[in-house]
Structures are given as C-alpha cells and as structure tokens.
Specification:
Length: 143
C-alpha cells in the first residue's frame, strides 16, 4: 500500500482517489458508501464474487466492509447478494420455460442443488414448488 501526502500527489503518480475517500480527504458518509456497495452487488449479482473481490471493488478492508455494511443494511453483504439472487430467480421462475438449473446459473449460483437449498431456506419452498403455486394461482384468477 502506498500513502500519499495529498490527493494531488496521488494523481500526479497516476492514481485516483478511491470511492471511500473524497479528493478533499474527507470520508464518504457511511450510508453513501453502503449504498455504493449495494449498487455494486445489484449490478454484479450474476458473478461468483468473493469478499476479497468486493473489498477491492468497494475500497475498504473486508472486515471493516462486512461490519459496517451489516450495521447499516441489517444483513451481511453475502446475505444481501443472496436475497438479490433469490428475488431475481422468483421473477425468472414466472416467465419463460427455463429449467431450474438454468435459472440458478443465470442468477449467480454455479450449482443447482445449492440454488434449490438456498431458495428453500429463504422462501420456504423449492423453486419448482414456487413456480407451480404461482402458475396455479394465475390460472385460477383467469377463470
């Protein structure tokens, strides 16, 4: 890690201020930083991401990032990412005819069994049961 005396010195050396710091040397407010992390997770939920990669993308140590994110958001970054994936999976289950494993891969789960397990844990039913219930409700409402 390199430390510069001023933002100008860092710029002169070819670096830019990180997202966590403003050029004036003031810290980005915690709520704003967590908002940036959420936006990053929402834009990259399909990728298999580690906390280390999140740390690099959002410019904060993984331990500080995890602690502050949890404090502000009420859940860990991993839980937030998983909820994004499950919500997107719910949408995909209701449109088209993609298989459960295809949907799991589309939302960032590399393993269909793990996708089904996590879906069931968070929603209370399997993805297939979710799809069938929603389809049967739509069918009964259309009659």
């Amino acid at each position: 890690m390199r430390v510069f005396a001023s933002p100008e010195e860092a710029k002169w050396q070819g670096f830019r201020p990180c997202k966590r710091c403003k050029p004036e040397g003031q810290e980005v407010p915690l709520q704003e930083w967590v908002g940036q992390i959420k936006a990053f997770l929402e834009g990259n939920f399909q990728k298999n991401m580690t906390l280390k990669e999140l740390e690099e993308a959002c410019h904060g140590s993984r331990f500080y990032l995890q602690r502050r994110f949890t404090e502000v958001a009420g859940c860990s970054p991993r839980q937030y990412l998983e909820q994004i994936r499950i919500n997107r999976a719910k949408e995909l289950l209701l449109v088209g005819e993609k298989s459960i494993s295809e949907i799991g891969r589309a939302v960032g789960f590399s393993n269909a069994e793990y996708f089904i397990t996590r879906f069931r844990h968070l929603v209370g039913i399997t993805p297939l049961q979710y799809r069938r219930r929603k389809q049967s409700k739509e069918g009964s409402e259309n009659q």
